[in-house]
Amino acid sequence: MPVGVRRCIVVGVPAVHDAGHKNASRDLRRRVIGSLPRGSAFLGLWIVFYLLDANQGNVFVQFVKGLADTLAWWAQDIFTMDAEGLRVALHYGLPAAIYLLAGHLIAGRVRRL
Description:
The protein has a domain at about 35-110. Helix content is about 65%, strand content about 0%. It has three helices and no strands. It has helices at about 20-50, 60-70, 85-110. It is elongated, with a radius of gyration of 21 Å. The model has no long low-confidence stretch (mean pLDDT about 80).
């Protein structure tokens, strides 16, 4: 029997919580913790680029804007206001905050598995 795998006393089958399960749970948690904050970072970077009036013709700025638009498509036009900078900060900041919160909540739940 492989190291780390326990047998169920009743029927002799591998127990549910073996070493492989814990490793898979840890890997999933790391991916969730890593992916959602990265998306939030790109959203925050676009807010900074917009507020600092970054060169829209730059390839990297276009990449960040495209990624931010993809991540925040659902939050566009939630707030309607005249101040363009505040509107952009809210339209991209709200998804960034939600992605950060969701990442930490999901990671906490996965940790308990």
